[in-house]
Design goal:
Number of domains: 2
Structural class: alpha/beta
Strand order of the largest sheet: 2-1-6-7-8-9
Radius of gyration: 21 Å
Order of helices and strands: EHEEHEEHEHEHEHEHEHEHEHEHEEHHH
Largest sheet: 6 strands, parallel
CATH topology of the largest domain: Rossmann fold
CATH architecture of the largest domain: 3-Layer(aba) Sandwich
Oligomer: single chain
CATH class of the largest domain: Alpha Beta
Number of strands: 15
Number of helices: 14
Amino acid sequence: MNILIIPYNYPTKENQNRAIFVQDQVHMLRNQGDNVIVIGGIPKTISDIISSRSLHFGKHFEERWLITFPALRGFNRFNNWLRTLCGKYLIKKYFKQNSGNLPDILHVHNSSSGELALWVKKKYNIPFVVTEHSSIMWSGYNKLSGLIFKESKANIAVSKKFAQQLSQQYNENFYYIPNVVDTSYFKPMQITSKTDNNSFSIDSAVFVSVGNLTENKNHKLAIKALKRLLGKYNNLKLFIAGDGCERYNVQNLINTLELCDHVFLLGRLSRPEIRELLWRSDYFLLPSKSETFGVALIEAMAAGLPTLSLKNGGSESIISDNVGFIADNDNDFIECMEQLLLTQYDKEHIIEHARLNFSQGAVYQLLKQVYAL
C-alpha cells in the first residue's frame, strides 16, 4: 500500500524524541511492507533554535520530503498557513516525479495539520484519515478540526476516553488505535525481577519517570510522594529524565525538601539512554495531569516495570490490573506509590501485556482495518 504521512511534528537531529510516536508508526508501516512517504513542513521555533544552537532550516536529515520551517509561538494561523504552503509545494513536486505511483491514502497526524489533506483530497481525489494526539483538544471545539474530521475517511484517537470525548464533541465516529511502541526494543535481554529476588529490599527501590519538565507533567507530585515514603523507607531513589521550563522550580523543590540524595534530574536522554535507565529501575511513575496517551508508560511496561499513573485521560487505556495502578487524585497517588512497593508483580506478564496491546503487530492490524474502510 502507498501511504503518505503528513505529520504535525517529527524527530530532528536536535530533538530526537519530539513526536517520536509518529516516526514509530512510520517504521511500523515500512516494516510491514508498505511504501511510506513522510511529507510536509515541521515547525522550528526560536526556542528550538536556541536549544539546538542551529539556524538550519530545510530538508530533514532522514526523510527526503520533509522540511523544517521557521515558526513563531502564539502565531498559529501564520504557522499553519506556512506549513500548508510548504506542504503544497512538496506534494506537487512529489506527485510530478511519481505520477504513476500516487498514494492510496493520506494519514494526517493532528487535525491542526489537516488543511493540506483537504487540499489533496479536493485536487487529487485521494482520501485521508486523521489521528488526533493533541491534549489541547480536551479543552473544546475547534472549527478547523471539525471540518477535518467531517471530510476524513476515518478519525482515530489514541486513547479510549479521548475517542469518546472527541466523538461527543464533534458528532463524528472515532476509532481507538493506540500509539505503537517497538516493545521488543525495550524488552530486557534477561528477564529477572528484583522484586522476586530474596535480596531485594523495598528500602532501596528505584523509581523512574520520563517526561518534559512542565507544569502538566507534574513531577512535583512524584517528588512530594517520595518525601512522604522516605519516612518509612530510607533509601528510595527517583530518577527523572526530561527537560523544560519547570526545571528550576523542580530543582528548587528537591532542594527545599532536602532530597538531593534521593531525587535526580537527568535532563533530556536519547532513546537508548532511556532504555538503559528503565532496565536499571524497579518502578515507573507518570504523574501527568492530562495525557491523550502515554508512550513512556508503554516503554516502561515493555521493559517489565510495574507502573503508577495519575488518572489523566490517556493512562486509563494502558494500565490494567496486574501491571500497576491508576490514582484518582494526588493523595491517592501517594498511597498507590506505597502499594506499588508492597505488591508482587510478574515481570513477564507486564512485558506480554505491552506486546499484545501496543506492539507493531498489534497496532498494525488495527490500522490496516481502518485503511481498508
